[in-house]
């Protein structure tokens, strides 16, 4: 994003303060049952501030200051909770603002029926329109490049200043509205209707306008509401109990006690944690279509990764020609070049380059201009051409070529397998080269594993995530690379539908699966996966199928996405643990003090030695309010995540946030009690 380093500025802070008040609207508050109870508590205590005997009893003017103070603190508590949510939303709003600025009123050159171009407002462009963009112009809409090749400045969207190449055909054909064409000229087919553009969706997302509670959030909200109900019953029983021991507790004290006991900390921070998680993903240049996708990333059990380009560097280049049977090297080079004449893939280009650089070949390329191009596809795993005279030239995966020859009744040279295996054992990709039912030899494609991959897979393993490498390559190459990279499992000779099968198999065992992809043939698998991370350069179909888009088009980012998802879940879990531990501790911290005057024996339990029942209540409710802003930074930044096993992580968090949650209130409440006693307001 253009402002990915966006921190909480003065402006965001000011807006959040205003929003905190706006959110007091009960129709908004009711979505958060715990904090809604606090708001009701505020209203009731406010009434009791003016009419202390509203619910009976005979409280004199002496009661009023206490009621006013409690009412005020409850209001502050609600506002602090609202503020936490507002400040989390603030960053997104600021981002949305800057994105909107890139969406100024552009004009577009639209092709009319007579093939001339007319100037129309970009907002009128519809799916299927053909437009032309010249160097220096903004690209007015999302689309696919149909003609031309040019460099594009995508910094408005990705924050990355280095220009990227976009051109017709292949995997780099999609362009995003709001980016700028730097060179040349593109003819683009518009892919979306007004209001549905990538920029529009992104604005909606960062703004949180379309934010819905995720299933996990809903479950937790229900749990917290249940706890609130339990504590409500606990508090209601205290009044008859007090009567029984010939004492009495006033309504305001009971309300204050209730607010102390219900899980207000997590209630106040829950939505901020979710928004901050989305925000973290966005600042990582990944756009998640929903909070649910981010959460799913945190729960992922299986990670499916491509070999070429994800685990390896991906510039798989021809490095050697190896003839087989009775064929000579120069014969092989000629056929290999022929098979790659029209092959625009990096592999195909590299064959020609290698032949040019290191070999002599006597082909007159012009002679083949009328040959029929047979493009590479992941299904056939072959590429080549058909000559006018019926000659068939192919190169491709060795098993695919073998099958191809066998079907035509040809013969396989005996030394083919041994030579193929030598290449595969080194982790290289062997391509067999054939012309007219004869195999001439092999092309050795070299690929290198990216540095640090082994360590990252090790981390994933510690998180309990299984990694599966998926490749169209042969079993031996696949196993060599898999072993070297340290993935847990691999599938070889995989066609696009094999990925789909793998995902379904894992899911049928109750696992959540994440994968990345870019091509149209990845689209079904991307839709099936629980987390489908699509490269921004990918096709429109793929982008629609997945639930996250990586603006930098880096497939390894899937690993970070999973970590961010985990961090979100762990942050929520930690603060929930802390909040509930806190509430239970408060019960034991203040109850003895409250009842000590009624039941003198309870004095032994009053280990905190709080000044009076009222100061116990006051200290606890002030502590309860202050803990919310104290934890806002943690909710926003997230609990630091370490890749350790689930059990050790749980133990660690129970130690820190569970034990911490029990101890902190004792210290905090005592401190506040000392302060308000010193200020002389402990007995208002
Ligand atoms: N340009 C090409 N011409 C002919 N055959 C090719 C070409 N590129 C790749 N192949 C063969 O087709 C196989 C499948 O290629 P594909 O791109 O589907 O998978 P991959 O790149 O090996 O693995 P990944 O799924 O990780 O990208 C390759 O292993 C190779 O044997
Ligand atoms: K509480
Ligand atoms: Mg590939």
UniProtKB/TrEMBL annotation:
Membrane-topology annotation of the record: Multi-pass membrane protein
Transmembrane segments: 33-52, 64-84, 218-242, 254-276, 584-604, 616-635, 656-682
UniProt KW Transmembrane helix keyword: yes
Residues that hold Mg(2+) according to the record: 518, 522
Top-rank taxon, per record: Bacteria
Family matches, as Gene3D superfamilies: Calcium-transporting ATPase, cytoplasmic domain N (3.40.1110.10), Calcium-transporting ATPase, cytoplasmic transduction domain A (2.70.150.10), HAD superfamily/HAD-like (3.40.50.1000)
Keywords: ATP-binding, Cell membrane, Ion transport, Magnesium, Membrane, Metal-binding, Nucleotide-binding, Phosphoprotein, Potassium, Potassium transport, Translocase, Transmembrane, Transmembrane helix, Transport
Catalytic residues identified in the record: 306 (4-aspartylphosphate intermediate)
Ranges for domain P-type ATPase A: 108-207
Entry's EC annotation: 7.2.2.6
Complexes and interactors: The system is composed of three essential subunits: KdpA, KdpB and KdpC.
Family indicated by similarity: Belongs to the cation transport ATPase (P-type) (TC 3.A.3) family. Type IA subfamily.
Protein name per Swiss-Prot or TrEMBL: Potassium-transporting ATPase ATP-binding subunit
Gene source species: Sporolactobacillus shoreicorticis
Gene name tied to this protein: kdpB
